[in-house]
Design a protein that fits this description.
globular, Rossmann fold, Protein-Tyrosine Phosphatase, Chain A, UDP-N-acetylmuramoyl-L-alanine:D-glutamate ligase, 15 helices
Amino acid sequence: MIPITTFAGQKVAVFGLGGSGLASASALLAGGADVVAYDDDAQSVAKANAAGIPTADLRRIDWAKIAALVLAPGVPLTHPAPHWVVQLAHKAAVAVIGDVELFCRERRAVAPGAPLVAITGTNGKSTTTALVAHLVASAGMDAQLGGNIGTAILSLAPPQAGRVHVIECSSYQIDLAPSLDPSIGILINLSEDHLERHGTMEHYAAVKERLVAGVPKQGIAIVGVDDEWCKAIAVRLAQSGKHVVRVSVRRTLTNGLYVDGQRIMRAAGGNVVEVAGIGGIGSLRGLHNAQNAVCAAAAALAFGLTPAAIQAGLRSFPGLAHRMEEVGRRGAVLFVNDSKATNADSAAQALACFSDIFWIAGGKPKTGGIESLRPFFPRIRRAYLIGEAAEEFAITLADVVLHEIAGTLDKALAAAARDAARSTAKEPVVLLSPACASFDQYRNFEIRGDAFRALVRALPGIK
């Protein structure tokens, strides 16, 4: 835990008592703050009470005595409308901040030189964050991994010289961290997302830009320049005097890092050198993972890692659970858990990585279904459809892709494993990439992926 001493002796309200909210309240209490916490869910309030966190209905407190409101990132700040607790804070002129802001204030107070890597983007945040932490740790440094990736930032070890905090930041967290100032900031990419919480693409992009705009003059802003939004942001950062490292997987750069085939190249001052190769690394398949890898390599270079150290770290990276996770192999057949692909765009990234696919898809459908995946249909040898989306997906696949309605994951895997074993392809792949939410049959995509992994590993002959 990181005790938050910057609010010692002050009264702080905390709203939203999930993982990050509980961690925030506990950290504030440990640092000497007077905490009052609340949640719209009575069970969450009871859980906080059981953990020794003082609670009260924030509609009935004296806001004049509150120094700050610490808001969980899942609570609406602006769109579609500010939550009632945000409205109360604004009415009382109380600052509304989040757990990342608490960390930033504490870091400046106790260890201002401690390295902080903050990563954001529409896609690839978690993989890039995990990969940066893996590269840093592989080089023998103390890497603390957290934020939006799963572990609340205030649950990590405190900032200190030589300890590297590698933090994934969602747009919601950035919105609540006005003084975010990472020593290395990474903006991977931008595309339309979360507009129900940000209103417009312009506002969403502006929030994301704050992460790299907060990098101090002596820090480094790493920006992917393969979309127009990020390209414009890189220009603005450079014009403001920031040290900007541009990265690309689509074009050669004269200054920056880019991917040439399966090689990460670095161009500077007219010289071009190879940093590392990504060919043959199963956890980094596909163009999207190439983008994650080049961003992480740029951060590793900033920490002084050699190309040899970066290469070793990339090769030993295990990948993330539920995202292109290789869970087993039987003979020539590879089994891949991509349960995190809860929409067609995400599933497209997995389908683009393989040529002979026995595809398990379906669940609770998203708007648009799988029509956008039609260019990948020639790669699919057979599809096994599950959940509520099965009938709809069958209509889309029609006579183009061989398919069957399996209904449930266990039946789909059994059929896919059987058919893949009979295939004459060089590397048949049984791929769970549902292009759907899980909520019709599983509480979340993690549980769905865990079920797939367990079913695969129960197959005879799996390695």
